[in-house]
Amino acid sequence: MKKFRKVLDGLTTSSPGGTMGSPSCGSAAGTPTAAPTPKEIDVQETLVSENFQLCKTVRHGFPYQPTSLAFDPVQKILAIGSRSGGVRILGRPGVDCYCQHESGAAVLQLQFLINEGALVTACADDTLHLWNLRQRRPAVLHSLKFNRERITFCHLPFQSKWLYVGTERGNTHIVNIESFILSGYVIMWNKAIELSTKTHPGPVVHLSDSPKDEGKLLIGFEGGTIVQWDLRAKKADFRIYYDEAIHSVSWHHEGKQFMCSHSDGSLTLWTLRNTTKPFQVTFPHGKIQKDGRKESCKPILKVEYKTSRSSEPFVIFSGGLSYDKAGRRPALTIMHGKAITVLEMDYPIVEFMVLCETPYNNEVQDPYAVVVLLEKDLIVVDLTQSNFPVFENPYPMDIHESPVTCTAYFADCPPDIIPILYSIGAKNKKTGYSHKEWPIGGGTWTLGSHTYPEIIITGHADGSIKFWDASAFTLQMLYKLKTSKVFEKPKPGEGRAAELGEEDPFAVQMVSWCPHSRIFCVVGISAHIILYRFSKYDANTQIVSLEVRLQCEPEDIITPSENENNPCFSEPGSHSPQPHHQHPLSPGSRTPDGAKDSIPCLKVKDKMVRVPPGYQSDLVIQLLWVDGEPPQQITSLDLNSAYGLLAFGNCNGLAVVDYLQKTVILCISTLDLYGATDPYQRLTRSPRRNRQSTSEHCMRGLSNFYSDSKKRIRTSYQSLTELTDNQQSIDMERSKSPTSVHYPTSLHNDPRILPEPVASLRASHCSPVFYLLDNESRENSFSRSRSSSVSSIDRDTKEAITTLQFGESYGRKSDALPTPCLWVGTSLGVGILIPLSIPTDHEERMEDPVTVGPSGAVQMLKGSVLRFGFLDCNGALIQSPYEVWRDLNAPEDPDRTRRRKLVHFSPSSSQDAFGEGHLAVVCSERQAKVFLMPSQSCLFVHNITESSFVLRADVVSLCNSVCLACFCANGHVMTLSLPSLRPLMDVNYLPLTDMRIARTFCFTNEGQALYLSSPTEIQRITYSQEMCDNLQEMLGELFTPIETPEAQNRGFLKGFFGGNAHTFDREELFGEAAAGKASRSLAQHIPGQGGVEGMKVAASGAVGELARARIALDERGQRLGELEERTALMMTSAETFSKHAHELMLKCKDKKWYQF
What does the similarity note say (predicted)? Predict the structure, then answer.
């Protein structure tokens, strides 16, 4: 139970911020006002450290930089290895598992132990790993590190426990899968080739056992040598020497012939009857030229030779195209009989694999699909249809279709939003897919009990927005929105792209979404904002555009020469930005000196457009060029559907737009927000001498923007001067003196009227460039330079708007009831509260202006302000008010009015008496504070980090309570209790390795978070102990007990004359008794942690294991019953045979030999 006393309004004594857990009275002093009787407020904080645990849950998207592919034909699961050491295992939708090698070495090859629930990975650090897939979280059981040789190829025969490993030196080693120990049996390269050969054959590029005889191993060397090695006799049966380098080999299922692919784009077919020359040589894509020579072709990197019962064999290969066709895309070629089909791909082919009905290599293969792993996509081609259509991929492999630039995560959404988004998005789905079921259907997955609607929104570089259903650890695309359709297509050589070299003028910077009202807002890199409304009906609409001038005028700049005699005053109205409606200016509007002026970066479509059902643009807001300088990028955004307002800011100032009346109601510089309550003492300084440098750096390309943002994130917390609470109180007391003059209490919504203070006692201008007076002692202020070599006087600093939040609060200490307010946070750690006056009646709201009062409370924190949150005095989270969704395009219904229906969450609604107030949580890059409103008293302070800075902070609900979640640049994920700011969790999870993580990391309710782990993958994590405990239940099962299909009965004659007549005992050849021990220096065995983890998982999933045991017992009983029936039939048959034999003997007993 945390108890704290409400601080009296008007208490003027100030003190340094109290430590966590103890209330402090760091009040911003002001004019004493009447206050309610102090009352003891009890807040019971239910969250404790035991409620928190951090762990990864699931990874979505396409594996980044894939390298290898494997498929289990019985379990029907697919594995993909990547360059960073990751392994992705996919089954039916919902079965999606990610594993990571600790070494981070690239995965060269994958081999399933077919139907055994295990996987072997060969990595670039020459280590083999055995993964246990019989648990929901796979773990390494064994590892084997090769010390003297590099691994190049691996092969594991079906139902064998001996793995063949080829090396760069040309040797072949054999590993026991069960013990992961190297056998003493080695096939040395100099034994495999003839002694007379003078050159090294090269690395081993292929290993396979003969379908005809498991005791024969086919070894392919890169130099063109192929050897069939007799494992029993330990000698070569035959050797083939070919001029061209070999890339792959594939057997015919009868084992009498095999096919090779070569570096010159040829395919050679070899028969075992004659190995002196190839039976057939073909150049599938090499045409004969006029001079009689064949075209030179690219290497065929892989070929698969598969037979079919019902048709001609399939020959499928990648590569082999001719060199002379420039710009031709990578292709997969399917040769079926005389027909040749070339499937062009969007990306280079990394690997492909043909899926067959049988796991046995000596049976007719009957291929039914081919999995093609591309550099940035995964496709599966249906081989059973003549036109070879592709299957519709159920996995979200196209997250990176355009680079992801921002993310948003919403948990516990309204339940009706997902079905309606899906129904709208389904209308625009692609067609032409195969009608058959997705062939990778292994594993089991059930909907867990701890599920709720979740939506992830991704913004992309091409201006597109994707809504994803993220419920129950899955990801499925619901709806796609293209923001570029609002604008005219830029002509080549014109517009922002030509002026500034911008490749992605529509790139999305941030999004804001209200799921209840279904209003969606997008901020783009070209300093534009688009507001969308949702409708189930299509419509013809005229896009409304507002243009805002949030930039300084050239005559507004105050130079030392102009203000030499009067440095503390400026002309009224010379320092605030101005809003403008859309002007009839052409895109080429320029000032007399030729500089661009008063035009936006993009041109909005000015004609009626037909918009389909879904999100339809309602308003476009664009910042304007000013005197040849492009507008600054927008840094913060918030909208509120109940108020009908949208606020945004950048490093120049703040603008508030009434999107119901389509007017700008406030457009003001950051400096003017303070009025007379500015906590800093500032002096103006001369502007930049080189104005062009601003134009070069303000609006740059997307990649430059990210690198610049990275620099900003690293240093933005290093503001010029930070004040302690004591100094803050003194400055605020000074600024709130009775002699100060405030600007008017209302600002009209007419954009032509400039909102400004009546008087100001300091010189100021738009986009203020200033430095702070460092005239206080080191104890009361501490300056930190962005660079030790740069003086603070030489720095060019602007105070940007870093966060905005609408909500019901108390604009003044004297307010008895909460009113609509806008909380503004700046990059200098200042939190400003702006009260709003909004008409409540529906008709008045659409006609009367919204007025903005003077700024009220001003709070100070260390570092840029990142987040605001509001709690009632019982510690419960106060939601922002919203408007209930209504379809503006719906047909008119005379029985139902079209009035707005608003839902409010007043701070006083859950309390006994009005005037009780509420708690405001303010978090910055370095510090978190809790204030009591309306007294504006600082109750709790917590310094989050001293050595780093917070990148992301959110007030989130968890376990029917609320906490503050923070992600720091040093990789720490922290949670703090509210309101006491008591540390609950601090985990060193993920260092900030690149800007992508900082840009995309976001928290949401119910203990979940996500970030972009690579350019193509979304990693979801949880910081909830409850979710970690239930994780095993929510993840899919990779392994399902399935009986291995029986081999076909080959027939007596076929087995006797040409089949595999002799059983091959590998244990007898490769075991320690026969082959001895391998050299200890050759490879080192490393035991894995999978055994212990497997025991833990088995203990936690006892029910599942019992179910498997029951299934196994049932199968065993069924087999025993079948065996008993067979035995009975055999006994009956034997008795019948004995009876007939006895009768025949009696009949023939007395006959002579000549009577027969």
Answer: Belongs to the WD repeat L(2)GL family.
Mean pLDDT score, 205-210: 96
* DSSP, res 49: G
Confidence bin at 1106 (pLDDT 50/70/90): low
Confidence of residue 1075 (pLDDT cuts 50, 70, 90): confident
pLDDT digits 0-9 by tens, 535-572: 999 999 999 999 999 875 443 433 333 333 333 333 33
For the chain, the domain total comes to: 1
Whether 469 is in a domain gets the answer yes
Does residue 845 lie in a domain region? no
- Nearest by Cα to 754 from 672, 850, 645, 650: 672
d(CA 526, CA 505): 6
Are the C-beta atoms of 665 and 589 separated by less than 8 Å? no
User: What span, in angstroms and rounded, lies between the C-alpha atoms of 1036 and 445?
Assistant: 4
Report the C-alpha gap between 751 and 521 in whole angstroms.
22
Rg (CA), the chain: 37
The C-alpha angle with vertex 920 and arms to 918 and 924, in degrees rounded to 5, equals 175
Task: Evaluate whether 152 touches 166 at the Cβ level (below 8 Å).
Answer: yes
Task: Select from 495, 515, 842, 465 the least CA-distant residue to 617.
Answer: 465
Say which residues have a Cβ less than 8 Å from residue 830's Cβ, sequence separation at least 6: 674, 679, 799, 858, 859, 860, 861, 865
Confidence band (pLDDT; 50, 70, 90) for 198? confident
How far apart are the C-alpha atoms of 944 and 951, rounded to whole Å? 12
The answer to whether the beta carbons of residues 189 and 170 sit under 8 Å apart is yes
pLDDT at 1116: 66
Q: Are the C-beta atoms of 963 and 975 separated by less than 8 Å?
A: yes
The pLDDT value given to residue 796:
42
Burial class (CB in 10 A: 0-12, 13-18, 19+), 429: exposed
Candidate ranges 119-123, 293-297, 753-757, 850-854; pick with highest mean pLDDT: 119-123
DSSP β-bridge partners for residue 808: 820
Evaluate if residue 592 carries a pLDDT over 60: no
What is the phi/psi pair of residue 640, to 5°?
-140, 120
Domain that holds residue 621: 401-426+451-489+501-551+597-634
861 in Cβ contact with 803 (< 8 Å) = no
* Burial class, 991, CB count within 10 angstroms (exposed 0-12 / middle 13-18 / buried 19+): exposed
For residues 437 and 380, the answer to whether their CB atoms sit within 8 Å is: no
| Max CA separation in the chain (angstroms) | 150
Residue 829 has φ and ψ, to the nearest 5°, of 80, 25
Q: How far is CA 937 from CA 811, 919, 922, in A?
A: 14, 10, 13
Q: Is residue 484 part of a domain?
A: yes
**β pairing state of 545-549 and 614-623:** parallel
Please give the Cα distance from 540 to 617 (Å, whole number). 11
Residue 547's CB: how many other CB atoms inside 10 A? 21
Q: Going by DSSP bridges, is the β-strand pair 77-82/66-72 parallel, antiparallel, or unpaired?
A: antiparallel
Q: What is the pLDDT of residue 861?
A: 92
Rounded-to-integer distance, Cα 341 and Cα 326, Å: 20
CA distance 965 to 942: 13
Q: Which residue has the tokens 């249809």?
A: 385
Instruction: Look at residues 1012, 983, 1009 and name the one whose alpha carbon lies nearest to residue 997.
Output: 1012
pTM: 0.80
Which residues, at least 6 apart from 923, have a Cβ–Cβ distance to it below 8 Å? 861, 865, 866, 867, 868, 869, 929, 944, 950, 953, 955, 964, 966
3-state secondary structure 510-549: EEEEECCCCEEEEEECCCEEEEEEEECCCEEECCCEEEEE
233 within some domain: no
Structure tokens at 859: 């709070």
Decide: 443 and 462 in contact? Cβ < 8 Å.
no
